[in-house]
Predict the 3D structure of the following.
Amino acid sequence: MATTPSKRARAATRLKQLNYRARARIYLKDPLEAERNPRLYGDVIVSRDNLITTGPTSSRFIVVDYDPQTDRVERPARSKLVTAGAEKVLEFPCRRGSPQEAQVNAWATAVDALDLFQQALALGREVPWAFEGSRLRILPHASCEANAFYNRDTRALHFGYFYDPKGRVIKTSLSHDVVAHETAHAVLDGLRPFYLDAHEPDTGAFHEFIGDLAAMWRKATISGIWSVRSRRRSAPASMAMPIATSSELPAIP
Ligand SMILES: [Zn+2]
């Protein structure tokens, strides 16, 4: 049946209405660092995308929040349209410490890290994933262990959580450096899939280098963090940032 002009117009309007940017509150280091310095907890703007919805889900990522330790599927974060200055943006309101906070933090940080590679001053094009399908899965409570990794076979970034000696839960999905690092593994795998088959340690080291570079790269573009760190150390801020490889298993070299 042919679509009437009015139906097409309504569909076009709906699509236009969905084509928003999103604003998400994320940790620019991790929650423990943000306790000491509230400036490390701030907003990131996610690029305009007509597929941002509950999950969060967007055109390149989907959050799947199943915790095998508790056998629970957590309720996905829901978006809310709010006015920000002259435009409307999507937000994902969530309580600090909630599962939804981890969902939103990991998703927004991963989107932001991918954008760093795709921006005009870097590659200037869309990066393909190394698997069929358009979305990389984000598992914010993938396991109860001090570990995080990218796995091509599961098409996912796996983020574990663990407990410190004081009994506080530490979620790797809330660490900016860990999320950016793992996202970069997926980016490099999409660009150079045979690097995962290499037997030379140098190739694995290059993968780790790109991951660490992504974690530090964002820091160099956030002036607030730069100034915070620069006051403490004489070295450039981006070089002073801890990197995120210490908790990895060999799921990716
Ligand atoms: Zn790594």
